[in-house]
Amino acid sequence: MVNKCPACGGYLEVKIGKYGKFHGCSNYPNCHYTFSLNRNNQKNTPKLEKAIQINDRIKLKNKTNNDIVEYKIIIPYVEYIDVFDWFGSYGPKYNSIIKRVEGGNPDNPDNPTIASDSAIGQLLIEKVVGDTIKYNDEEYEILEVKKGNI
Ligand SMILES: [Zn+2]
Fold it and tell me: Is residue 47 in some structural domain?
């Protein structure tokens, strides 16, 4: 199964980095899309079918005050721009820098979202109902995972 890069349509390759396995785009360095994988990469196990992925809507309960909040997990949109860097022996060299990022907005009252690559997003991805995460000294229980259309 080949996974397509949601940013550029290239294909995603499993790479191993400092923090474990991740999907990186075959068009790197032109495309910088990455997506972290869990330690075992058990993509088709029943557990992972129910696990949190991009496009899912989730319900979290704050275990301190019992507040229940609902979020959608989204892919952050990142756009790069080439800027002149220096003149090499074969002409000008360019460097890609980030031009625009649209991340999640958990405080949007109409559509609260969490970016998959944010600190809390990384904690949530591939967790299942009943799991608990710890974020900013608060504990959150995953109450519900509504699968999105991936
Ligand atoms: Zn790509």
Answer: no
